[in-house]
Amino acid sequence: MNSTIRFVLAVLLLASAAFAQQAPTEQDFFPLSRFEIPEGIVLEAGAIEPLPDGSLAVATRRGDIYLVSHAWDDDLKPAEFRLFAQGLHEVLGLSWKDGWLYATQRCEVTRLKDTDNDGLADNIETFCDTWSINGDYHEYAFGSPFDRDGNMWVVLCLTGSFGSDCPWRGWAVRIDANGNMIPTCSGIRSPGGIGFNAVGDAFYTDNQGPWNGTCSLKWLRPGSFQGHPGGNRWFSLTEQGAKSAPAEPQSGSRIVTEADKIPEYEPPAILFPYQKMGQSASGIACDVTSGKFGPFSNQLFVGDVTHSTVMRCALEKVNGHYQGACFPFREGIGSGTLALRMTDDGTLFVGGTNRGWGSRGTKPFSLERLRWTGKVPFEILEMKVRPDGFELFFTEEVDPATASIPETWAFESYCYIFQSSYGSPEVDHAKPTVTSATVAEDKKSVRLTLNQMTRGHVHELHVKGLKSASGLPLLHDSAYYTLHYLPTADQL
User: Fold this and answer.
1) pLDDT tens across 388-412, in order?
2) 296-311 burial, b for 16+ CB within 10 Å, e for fewer?
3) What is the largest CA-CA distance in the chain?
4) Which of 52, 129, 242, 292 could form a cystine bridge with 236, CB 3.0-4.6 A?
5) Which domain, by its residues, includes 195?
6) Which tens digits make up the pLDDT trace of 459-481?
7) How far, in Å, are 105, 399, 462 from residue 378 at the CA level?
8) What is the CATH classification number for the domain harbouring 297?
9) Distance (Å, whole) CA 83 – CA 261
C-alpha cells in the first residue's frame, strides 16, 4: 500500500470517527432528568398529576400519594416529597377536579381533599365502587383523567390472564359526575395505561397474552368489543342483557378476519411488535402543548415497562377506525416505565417500577422528567397509508439523492395469530418491495409505492442510509405501521 492510499484511508477513518462523535443522540433533543427520591420512600410511581398549587401528585403501587415540590425547577435537587395520603390499594390513576384529587385503586375510585390545610388528606370519600375484586394479584384498575363530557374512564384487568371471576373484570367503564358507573367496552385483558388523544377519544394499552398476540394500543370506541371474551359473561348485568354480547372470535384466526365478521370488534389501532418495540406496554400521554414538546404535536407517547422506554405513536383514521405507526422515541428510563403525564408547559413526567415484571432499567423505582431542548431531531414524523403504499413525512428536509432510491426503504410484513392461548409468534411473513420513491417538492415527504399491501399486517420499515438535506442521519431509522384498513383513492 503506497503512502497516498494510506493517507486517504487515514483521512476517511478520522472523518468517520469525527462524524460518529458528532452524531446526535436522544439526549441532545429530549434530555432525561432524574429526581432524587429520599431514603425510606418506595416510589413505585403508578400515576402522576399536576396540582393547582404548583406541586406534583405522585401515587405509588404501595398505596401512598406524595406531593412533590419544585418538580418543574431546572435543578431537581431542591425537590421535596411530602406524604399526602396512605393506605390505598395500588393507585394507578390520578386526576384533579374541583378541589378533589381522584385516585383509582383496585377496588374503587376514591376522592381526597385536605380541608384543614395541614398537608394531609383528611376528607376521603368513595366516589365509585360498583365493580368487584377477587383478591387476585392481576386485578389492576387504571383510571383516566376526566374526559370532555365530565366522565372518568377505568379499565379493569381480568382475574389472572384468562378469566373474569367477578363483575366487570375485563371491561372499560365510565364514571359520571355523580359517581355512577356506565359499562362501556368489553374485551379488556391486561391494561397497562389509559388516556385520550388530541380530540378526546379514549385509548388504553393491552398486553401480550390470551387473544393478544403482542402488546397493543386500542381505541375504546363506546360499545366496542376489544378482543378477549372472558368478561362477556357480565353482559347479563347490562340493561340490554346477554343478547348484546358479541360473538366469540374463532381461536387460531387473524385479527382482520374476525374484525370483518364481528361488528362490535375494534381491532388494535397499533400493534407493538414483541421485543422489537417492547414487551409490556404501559402509560399513555398525548402532546397537546402546541409545539412545546417538539415537532410531535397531537401524537401519543406510550411507555414500556420491560424495555424501560417511551414510544411514539402517530395515528390516523381509515374507514372509521384508528390505525397508524409506532416509532422508538426515548430509552434509558431508570426503572420500568409505567406512568406518563405530560403537562401544559411541555414537560413529560415518567414514573417507573420493576416489581412483578422486571425491566432493563436497573432501579426498583424511579421518577424522571423529559423536556425538549428546542433542537429538532431528524425523524419520520408520520407514516400514512395510501392505496398502493405509504407517504412518509419528516421533521426536516430530506436529501433527494438518498430518499429517491427505492433500495433506501426496506419493508417486511407479518401478523399475529388471534387465539385463546398465550401470545403469538409473527406469522404469514411477506417481503413487500418499493417500486418507486417520489420526493415532494418541499422535500419534507416521500411517497412510496409498494408491490403489495396486506390487510391485517404490521408493515415494518427500516431506512438505509437516508440523510437530511443538511447531511444528518435519522435519529431513529425504523417504523411499524399496523395496516387493518386500506383507503380508496377518493378518500385521500
Assistant:
1) 999 999 999 999 999 999 999 999 9
2) beebbbbbbbbbbbbb
3) 87
4) 242
5) 26-370
6) 999 999 999 999 999 999 999 99
7) 41, 12, 15
8) 2.120.10.30
9) 52
